[in-house]
Design goal:
With 311 residues, this protein is an alpha+beta fold. The protein folds into 2 domains: 266 residues, q2cbj1_9rhob like domain (Jelly Rolls, Sandwich), CATH 2.60.120; 30 residues, no CATH class. Helices cover 29% and strands 16% of the residues. The chain has 9 helices and 10 strands. The strands form 2 sheets. A 7-stranded antiparallel sheet has the order 1-8-5-10-4-3-2. The chain has a 3-stranded antiparallel sheet with strand order 7-6-9, with no helix packed on it. Helix 1 packs across helix 5.
Length: 311
């Protein structure tokens, strides 16, 4: 028996095959069991790419704040006004539109495959940001789930959203690591006030690692007690039926779409017909950027419809 080649799971087979090829089987088990996983640097990206994306984030810090940033020094808000800002932290937003290195990142095979697994191929990029953190006091861990709850506070068991942090510096407890509550994704709800604080563990990972988690997993961050920066690139994805945090669908340029594979277009909703004007929907967008599996599925349905009509 050969797994990964069943006819009735045609749309899932490529994801299964990529998991095997990239050696991510253990990470998938960790995601299902604990709600998060850590992928070591050698399975994420080459050192040259890591250096390039980190240098780009530091450059954007300077451009947006007017302050020179260095890894071994604490940061400052400067004239940067984007919200939210807390003691010792701000976020850089809309990175996808800031430099081509981020276009490369969202198509990173390891990132793409694990998000694809969690979201069953229905993911779109919701936001691409960087949490720029330095020494500062905070109250509690700020535990939360990234999934938007229903009115009664419940969450679906599936991963309506999925998140990942590419660690651009070492993550340790003293350095303000992400806090996770293992297994909390199965509770399918947001934590109550103060709930989960004693269960939370620091996710320690060396620079270049990728931390991926299920949208329901309760997480936050520990206080950074050391000098210097804690940097990441956070790739937040949501199901196609949800609104994205950042606007991509109509703002990505044709040049960006042309220089990237169809997977990129689908991530930024270029295949989405919704959001039309007085001209109405353009259904050609869906097929123009559809995956090969989706095209085959539509072709089979078309043939079946024609056969039924002929009969």
């Amino acid at each position: 028996m050969k797994f990964g080649d069943f006819r009735n799971t045609g749309v899932l087979n490529p994801t299964f095959q990529r998991i095997q090829e990239l050696g991510l089987g253990e990470n998938v088990v960790e995601l299902d069991t604990y709600g998060f996983t850590v992928v070591p640097p050698d399975k994420v990206a080459e050192p040259a790419f890591f250096e390039r994306i980190r240098a780009t984030v530091l450059r954007l810090c300077k451009e947006r704040t007017g302050v020179e940033f260095a890894l071994d020094s604490n940061g400052a808000m400067g004239h940067y006004k984007a919200q939210p800002q807390t003691d010792g932290q701000f976020l850089l937003f809309y990175l996808l539109m800031a430099d081509r290195v981020f276009e490369e990142w969202v198509l990173n095979p390891t990132l793409y495959t694990l998000i694809d697994y969690l979201m069953h191929g229905q993911q779109q990029l919701s936001s691409l940001t960087s949490f720029v953190k330095w020494k500062g006091e905070r109250e509690g861990l700020g535990l939360h789930s990234d999934s938007p709850p229903d009115r009664d506070g419940r969450l679906p068991a599936c991963s309506d959203v999925a998140n990942a942090a590419y660690c651009l510096t070492d993550y340790t407890l003293e350095n303000g690591a992400i806090a996770m509550v293992p297994g909390s994704h199965t509770r399918c709800r947001q934590p109550g006030a103060g709930e989960g604080e004693k269960e939370a563990i620091p996710v320690e990972a060396e620079a270049g690692s990728l931390i991926v988690w299920h949208g329901n997993t309760w997480h936050g961050a520990f206080e950074k007690k050391t000098d210097g920066l804690r940097l990441n690139v956070t790739s937040y994805h949501c199901h196609k039926r949800l609104k994205t945090q950042e606007a991509y669908q109509w703002r990505v340029t044709q040049e960006m779409l042309d220089r990237n594979p169809p997977e990129f277009a689908r991530l930024v909703a270029a295949d989405d017909t919704m959001g039309w004007d007085e001209s109405g929907p353009d259904y050609s967008r869906t097929m123009k950027y559809a995956s090969e599996e989706t095209k085959k599925l539509f072709a089979r349905r078309g043939r079946k419809a024609r056969e039924e009509e002929a009969a």
